[in-house]
Specification:
Helix 4 crosses helix 5. Strands 1-2-3-10-4-9-8-7-6-5 form a 10-stranded mixed β-sheet, with helices on both faces. The model is unreliable at about 260-265 (pLDDT under 50). The chain has about 270 residues and is α+β, with helices and mostly antiparallel strands. The protein has helices at about 15-20, 35-45, 70-75, 110-120, 135-145, 205-215, 235-240, 260-270; strands spanning about 5-10, 25, 55-60, 75-85, 100, 155-160, 160-170, 185-195, 220-230, 245-250. Strand 8 (about 185-195), helix 6 and strand 9 (about 220-230) form a beta-alpha-beta unit. It contains 8 helices and 10 strands.
């Protein structure tokens, strides 16, 4: 039986601490649940959690419009979307002038640098947090991807210079996202990143088209990814490449609802 209210704590010396706050409190949405009542009850449990490295999280199906107002009224914002692309979905024509090649172990420094660009950009949108050890843990994780017995990471190059990278978890490595997939077999697109000075040049589209071609030819029926909903680049980009929102992660960070902030907002409203 799913626990309605739960709490997890990330090891500060881990990559998980980059992808979210150190302490996360979750409310498990279930079909037919009385979300407003659950949110009210949850508020009584979330005490002393005004540390910015905490968050309260509710993940709901993106089409569940009835969840929106209760979450907004409790101070939550939609920060992350789990989106899905089904095999064969049409996408923009692959741009010319961008070379694609498989990444190798010799590219480890480059792919860590490209990932760090993405971490720093996404840190503006509420969930990702660059830590002092983020680059070190990315190095370990990306070395594992590069060490797999199949191609899973590719670089976009202009001339001989890498300007972007993408990697995927094929079905044998993607089991952790099974509950979000609507078709089998499924894969997970773990990262797409382009150097800041190469954004808008087609490198990201070329990488995505290549990865989708690999996945389609491998018989993958569903590809999932996370993207930051407030990111003005990622939402239009991914949906133009055939992805659709399946689950939305609503977050409040810090976890404790700020009564001071709500009172100040009401005072300003009353003054106008």
């Amino acid at each position: 039986m799913t626990e309605i209210f739960s709490r997890t704590e990330a090891d500060p010396d881990s990559l998980a601490a980059t992808w979210g706050p150190l302490r996360t409190h979750r409310l498990a949405w279930q079909p037919g649940c009385d979300l407003p009542a659950l949110l009210d009850e949850w508020e009584t449990r979330l005490t002393g959690l005004d540390d910015p490295d905490t968050a309260a999280i509710v993940t709901v199906p993106s089409h569940e419009a009835a969840c929106t107002l209760p979450l907004i009224h409790h101070g939550f914002a939609p920060l992350t979307v789990i989106a899905e692309r089904l095999a064969g979905t049409s996408a923009p024509t692959r741009p010319a002038g961008v070379g694609i090649r498989a990444a190798t172990r010799a590219d480890l420094d480059v792919v860590v640098e490209l990932n760090m660009h993405t971490v720093r950009y996404d840190s503006a949108f509420g969930m990702v947090t660059e830590r002092p050890n983020t680059a070190e843990h990315l190095r370990t994780a990306l070395a594992e991807v590069l060490g797999r017995d199949h191609e899973a990471m590719w670089l976009a190059v202009r001339g001989d210079t890498p300007v972007g990278m993408i990697y995927v978890d094929l079905p044998q490595d993607a089991g952790w996202v099974e509950r979000f997939a609507s078709a089998r077999p499924f894969a997970y697109l773990g990262h797409l990143g382009v150097r800041p000075d190469a954004r808008g040049t087609g490198a990201g589209s070329a990488l995505t088209a290549h990865a989708h071609d690999v996945l389609d030819r491998a018989g993958v029926a569903s590809t999932l990814l996370h993207h930051a909903l407030p990111n003005p680049r990622s939402t239009p980009f991914w949906y133009s490449h055939g992805y659709r929102p399946r689950w939305t992660v609503w977050a409040r960070r810090p976890a404790l609802r700020s009564s001071t902030g709500v009172s100040a907002l009401l005072e300003r409203t009353n003054e106008t």
